[in-house]
């Protein structure tokens, strides 16, 4: 062993220390909170009981008795683990039941269950795209759509948020390439909707495949809670492929990709995050079946949630808070600097509310925000109390910001 050679290699601990200092300097360090207990919209965090305005449990289903009963019953006879990947021997009847139920609910020919939304996006893009293909995406798409495109080896182009003229120009730079357009249906950090009818038109006119990630739309909007594609009056002919997650409004864990028989079969054969991972525990699939039955069968949660969203927006507008143009339960308050968002989040926590500060790289630099999320499990009085606290914690610094 030659000592000189060893000292030439950069040191891991130097690098990690430098990175940690940079995170501190830019208020980017992340603190993982421990949730000791959860009781509807209340969370016990660091010894305090807070009203939770940060979760994606938009319908309050994560603790619904139908879901926990389905989970427990299934676990009682099938145990916990699925014990293998789908193609080996991990594909249980609850998985099949969930895929069939979801396809029927969404009016899509076929559904394929993935371990999570993250894995689904990696799997879909890697399975369908090859080196030299073109993948066009909205700049505000969720990180896993970007990661999926990178994983696929395709040429990734990102258009400015909602700018379909730019998307069209990007597609036309490579008219001979096999192309896929991917977009969030509801943007996870802004809460606004993708222009789905126009995206479908663009995809058709450019012979590109349209893939919609509806993690935040499913359960919340659309007829029978089908999500943003159905809300736009579209179906499998306009959006041949979409992904819904089970971990947000549906209160469970996992994700389903819905599409034509041909697309789903290709994904099932090729998607590495489907093939080379253990299947979801069957009991979780059973819980998601119960969730879909509730979402499809009962509209009152969606109606209540939509009334709460309107109440929050009305109140926030009266206070001059800088709201974004969102009609969904995602109601961000953009404060700009990382430290401003962190300070506001800490002040809200002191006042009894859990509202996460979202900073880069999750959002663009200079657009750090409080990401307020509403749930059908909230009460009007809790919305009003949050508005009171917001008035004290983040008064707009100037009228321009409030406009
Ligand atoms: C949360 C989210 C995902 C990831 O889903 P998980 O099931 O949490 O892995 C994918 N896309 C979007 C838009 C999301 O918000």
Written description of the protein model:
This protein has 403 residues and is of the alpha/beta class. The chain folds into 2 domains: 133 residues, Aspartate Aminotransferase, domain 1; 230 residues, Aspartate Aminotransferase, domain 2, CATH 3.40.640. Helices cover 44% and strands 17% of the residues. The protein is built from 17 helices and 14 strands. Strands 4-10-9-8-7-5-6 form a 7-stranded mixed β-sheet, sandwiched between helices. Strands 1-2-3-12 form a 4-stranded mixed β-sheet. Helix 7 links the parallel strand 5 and strand 6. Helix 5 runs parallel beside helix 13 and helix 14 packs parallel to helix 16. The chain is globular, with a radius of gyration of 22 Å. The site of pyridoxal-5'-phosphate has 14 residues, from helix 6. Pathway: Cofactor biosynthesis; biotin biosynthesis. InterPro entries: Aminotrans_II_pyridoxalP_BS, Aminotransferase_I/II_large, AON_synthase_class-II, AONS_Archaea/Proteobacteria, AONS_Proteobacteria, PyrdxlP-dep_Trfase, PyrdxlP-dep_Trfase_major, PyrdxlP-dep_Trfase_small. Its EC number is 2.3.1.47. One of its GO terms (molecular function) is 8-amino-7-oxononanoate synthase activity. Keywords: Acyltransferase, Biotin biosynthesis, Pyridoxal phosphate, Transferase.
